[in-house]
């Protein structure tokens, strides 16, 4: 698996995805730099989850589209490489890159703003969020033949996933969202990210890890199944 993992990292470098990550980091740093420190506990979850969503989803999806167009996936049929190994290496490589970008952003902001970091929440939040959006990007990309075809479905998906952010709005108009938000994986990701800077409820960490772990495991299983059916056109062999 390490050879596939290394190839995936080289892909990120060769096709300038690394540069896109650097530009994204600089952009978000500029946004956070000009925010007052009292706004960071609210702004940080929004910035990091949208950053993870954009980087993890788009980068993994672009890799799938490229490999489908270049018939790279045909190699899986004629080699001993298992679909699980292929998808796991892709998830790990893109997650590693996204985690590096997000961690660099956090520490750059921390150097300027001087706030304290809860490293337990930092690690748990990042390792929960990154694979989620990477796997989601892989899964959605496998359903479409071109990037433009998935723009509208992706927009609808992100709109639904980001509904828990409405709980930040202190208004009766969105009060209905608070009890519903507990069923969204992004709610726990949001709260764990918030815990990097400020105290959050003690149930967030164990429940968030369990919920995110189950969702990510389910997404990975679904990716394996859909990859066999949609990309390769077989019903579960060579998994």
Short note summarizing the structure:
The chain is mostly helical and about 240 residues long.
Give the number of helices. 10
Strand content: under 5%
Would you tell me the overall average pLDDT?
A: 81
Number of domains: 1
Uncertain runs: none
Spell the H/E element sequence.
Answer: HHHHHHHHHH
Cα Rg: 18 Å
Tell how many strands the DSSP assignment holds.
Answer: 0
Shape: globular
Going by helix content, strand content and strand pairing, the class is mainly alpha
Distance between the termini: 14 Å
Helical content class: over 70%
Q: Can you summarize the main beta sheet?
A: none
Explain the overall architecture.
- By secondary structure, this protein is mainly α.
- The protein has one domain.
- Helix content is 72%, strand content 0%.
- The chain contains ten helices and no strands.
- The radius of gyration is 18 Å and the shape is globular.
- It starts with a helix and ends in a 7-residue tail after the last helix.
- The mean pLDDT is 81.
């Amino acid at each position: 698996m390490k050879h596939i993992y290394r190839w995936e990292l080289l892909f990120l470098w060769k096709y300038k995805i690394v540069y896109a990550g650097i530009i994204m980091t600089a952009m978000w740093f500029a946004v956070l730099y000009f925010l007052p420190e009292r706004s960071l506990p609210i702004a940080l979850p929004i910035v990091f989850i949208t950053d993870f969503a954009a980087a993890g989803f788009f980068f993994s999806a672009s890799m799938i589209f490229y490999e489908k167009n270049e018939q790279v996936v045909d190699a899986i049929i004629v080699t001993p490489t298992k679909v699980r190994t292929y998808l796991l290496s892709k998830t790990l490589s893109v997650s590693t890159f996204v985690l590096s970008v997000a961690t660099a952003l956090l520490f750059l902001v921390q150097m300027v703003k001087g706030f304290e970091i809860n490293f337990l929440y930092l690690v748990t939040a990042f390792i929960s969020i990154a694979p989620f959006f990477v796997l989601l990007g892989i899964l959605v990309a496998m359903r479409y033949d071109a990037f433009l075809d998935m723009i509208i479905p992706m927009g609808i998906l992100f709109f639904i996933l980001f509904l828990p952010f409405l709980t930040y709005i202190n208004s009766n108009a969105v009060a209905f969202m608070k009890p519903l938000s507990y069923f969204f994986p992004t709610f726990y990701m949001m709260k764990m990210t918030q815990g990097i800077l400020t105290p959050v409820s003690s149930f967030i960490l164990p429940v968030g890890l369990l919920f995110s772990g189950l969702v990510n495991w389910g997404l990975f299983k679904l990716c394996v199944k859909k990859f066999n059916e949609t990309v390769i056109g077989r019903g579960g062999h060579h998994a």
